[in-house]
Amino acid sequence: MSLFGSSGIRGVVGRDFTVDLAVRIGTAVGNLYRRVVVGKDTRTSGDMITSALASGVNSVGGDVYMAGMLPTPTLAKAASRFDCGLMVTASHNPPEYNGVKMWNPDGSSFGSEQMQEMESLIRREGYDTPDWRGVGKVYVHEGAIENHIDSILRDIGQCQSRVVVDCGCGAASVVTPLLLRRMGCTVVSLNSHPDGFFPGRSPEPTEDQLGVLKETVVRSGADIGLAHDGDGDRVVAVDDRGRFVSGDRLLALFASTAGKRGMVAPIDASMMLDDLVRGPVVRTRVGDVYVSEALKESGLEFGGEPSGTFVFARRSYCPDGIYAAALLTRIASGNRLSSLIDSLPSYPSVRESFSFDGTKRGEVEGRIETEFKRMECSRVLTMDGYRAEFPDGWFLVRLSGTEPKMRMTVEARSREALEKLSDMSRSIVMRCLE
């Protein structure tokens, strides 16, 4: 079974993701990269895992530069000064999870070929290790947060927006509120206590988790509300009327400006992108690594996912929820965000997740394949899961790459069509999970 999911290596600490695995990952990375910068999000297991990674890198002669607790895009930017960056995070997963994402100096996460190479090295037994005179060292790397903030300020500039930002008690707590204040904004921050337990809400900023943010935006008369995930590579928003703005809608908003020449989006992204973008909409597998790979190959400048990850290739190939938050804030300072959102085309959609026994993943995959082989529709796309397309909409059924869940996405051109396609796709899901 592959160690890598769609976003690095992760699992429940002590069960799926162990200290031994972290040491092996560090040893594999240190075998190829001599200067490695390491960061972590707020999780309680972060110190343990960063120490284990450093031990592995040091054991084969590599040096480690500890950047401390910071968001993923901040670490990815810092990686530009090193051979490689390691971010200890499980992103939006619950606090018992942790993991590692690996970054190239250009801000891209390790691509498909690199992941295959790392997988082989992690599983390898025996390395040529130096004696006591050749082991690596551990240094402290300072200034990563300030460098990231300064680079965003140079791009975004000043604005006078009133903002409420919900950091989810994650790593963005130490960056986004400060950045927005330095931009000139009036800021109210929520859930900015990074204690590793995520006490305010789940680290995944779904609409049902953001009731306090909605209320605070309306009560304070804010122009925008922002919410991050656990490691700050994602952002979603609440408009000035207190309405949740999904990642799909934000993707469309950015696409209407940043994606004028074309853009990259995964297979589960809305068909509204095809209405807004003048150039090609290049579809990929779900996962920011695949979006970044396609941006490199195509030469396009913008891509993202409905999960709330946005990649601005001229800056970095890392999804940067911090930069996206600042850009949204500037947009909201000159226009009512609610009016901009209402001007976008809109198709009704449904997204649902269904948990299953992870030990039966192969069996579940086989059932999905069988179901879609007998599907009567216009077309079935199989680059990642199974997307069935119909004249009045589409639905996608795929297994998560990071946790034992089946994802279902449905979008249609009318409510009636949405209900019909939703019933059809749920029936398939239920049969696959019996």
Whole-number average pLDDT?
Answer: 94
How many distinct domains?
3
What is the straight-line distance between the termini? 23 Å
Low-confidence stretches: none
Question: In what range is the share of β-strand residues?
Answer: 15-25%
Q: Specify the overall morphology.
A: globular
Strand order of the largest sheet: 1-5-4-2-3-6
How large is the radius of gyration? 21 Å
Would you identify the CATH architecture of the largest domain? 3-Layer(aba) Sandwich
CATH superfamily of the largest domain: Alpha-D-Glucose-1,6-Bisphosphate, subunit A, domain 3
**What is the name of the CATH topology of the largest domain?**
Alpha-D-Glucose-1,6-Bisphosphate, Chain A, domain 3
Individual helix count: 14
DSSP E strands, number: 20
This entry's quaternary arrangement is single chain
**Helix amount, in percent?**
25-40%
